[in-house]
């Protein structure tokens, strides 16, 4: 397994897809903060701790927003479906267990993303400090390293569930279709469905149609939003339908639902991959 991870790391680290879909984040944020520092004016009103944290933790929202999830799915499409386009599966499949091949790809792909995001968060904090020094702006009272780590860590945890679901969508599509383009399209559709299904269900309920609430209760979209609400606000998300029905679940139920989807998608990927004839 260690050799597989090392080989995958060596292959993907300098890959163009990694540069455009992973290293993009620290480079882009560095440029944005550098421009902000250059155009910042002195004498701006004092910043609050909440505002300072918000400025430096934007990167952790990437895994939770639609555009960020599209980019994540694109990278998983490159890593998994790309093997079929490069015709390289046949070079490694005969020499290793298929579950190990998939596992090493998951670990390296997730590892590269988190390394890039942690680097981006560090750059954001350092550049924000530099910006305060250049503009003469005093740091907010009460801002400590512990506060920064706690708030960034909380947002990091919030992004794990949508990241894993997005990875599940993309890898299932990649292994099933063997096409990078098809994987990207399918992933975009599924991620968009996660975001819009709740609104569609509420709109249809105004016409007396309550049956769409059944798949909404089962699919990941509601549970991602509910879990995020529990973690961020300490209260669950309630979807109120025009018919008077209220969809509300506990944090535990949504956590189990997301875990079920993650495990189920991973199992489906392995099942399909094991039955493929790769020559």
Describe the protein:
The chain has 279 residues and is mainly alpha-helical. It contains 12 helices and 2 strands; from the N terminus they run αααααααααααββα. α8 (145-177) runs antiparallel to α11 (220-233) and α8 (145-177) runs parallel beside α12.
Q: Could you give a short description of this structure?
A:
The protein has 279 residues and is mostly helical. The protein has helices at residues 2-12, 16-21, 24-39, 49-56, 66-86, 89-92, 98-135, 145-177, 180-205, 213-218, 220-233, 251-274; strands at 239-240, 246-247.
Which properties best describe this structure?
mainly alpha; two-stranded antiparallel ribbon; 279 residues
Q: What coarse outline follows from CA principal-axis ratios?
A: flat
Number of DSSP helical runs: 12
- Structural class by helix and strand composition: mainly alpha
From the N-terminal CA to the C-terminal CA, the straight-line distance is 22 Å
Arithmetic mean pLDDT: 89
Backbone CA Rg: 21 Å
User: What profile does the largest beta sheet have?
Assistant: 2 strands, antiparallel
- The poorly predicted ranges are none
* Proportion of beta-strand residues: under 5%
Strand element count: 2
The neighbouring-strand order within the major sheet is 1-2
Helices and strands, in order, run as HHHHHHHHHHHEEH
Share of helix among residues?
Answer: over 70%
């Amino acid at each position: 397994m260690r050799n597989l991870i090392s080989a995958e790391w060596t292959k993907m680290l300098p890959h163009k897809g990694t540069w455009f879909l992973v290293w993009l984040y620290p480079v882009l944020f560095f440029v944005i903060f550098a421009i902000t520092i250059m155009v910042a004016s002195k004498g701006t009103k004092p910043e609050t701790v909440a505002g300072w944290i918000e400025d430096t933790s934007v990167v952790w929202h990437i895994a939770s927003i639609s555009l960020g999830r599209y980019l994540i799915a694109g990278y998983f499409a490159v890593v998994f479906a790309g093997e079929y386009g490069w015709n390289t599966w046949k070079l490694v499949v005969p020499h290793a267990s298929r579950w190990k091949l998939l596992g090493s790809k998951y670990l390296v792909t997730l590892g590269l993303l988190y390394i890039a995001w942690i680097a981006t968060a560090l750059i954001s904090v350092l550049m924000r400090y530099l910006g305060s020094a250049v503009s003469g702006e005093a740091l907010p009272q009460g801002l400590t390293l512990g506060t920064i780590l706690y708030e960034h860590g909380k947002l990091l945890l919030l992004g794990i569930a949508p990241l894993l679901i997005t990875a599940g969508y993309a890898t299932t599509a990649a292994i099933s279709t063997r096409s990078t383009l098809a994987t990207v399209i399918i992933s975009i559709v599924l991620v968009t469905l996660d975001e819009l299904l709740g609104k569609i269900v509420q709109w249809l309920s105004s016409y007396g149609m309550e049956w769409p609430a059944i798949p909404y209760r089962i699919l990941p979209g509601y549970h991602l939003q509910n879990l995020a609400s529990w973690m961020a606000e300490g209260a669950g998300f309630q979807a109120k339908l025009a018919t008077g029905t209220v969809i509300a679940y506990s944090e535990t139920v949504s956590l189990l639902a997301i875990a079920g989807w993650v495990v189920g998608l991973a199992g489906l990927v392995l099942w399909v991959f094991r039955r493929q004839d790769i020559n």
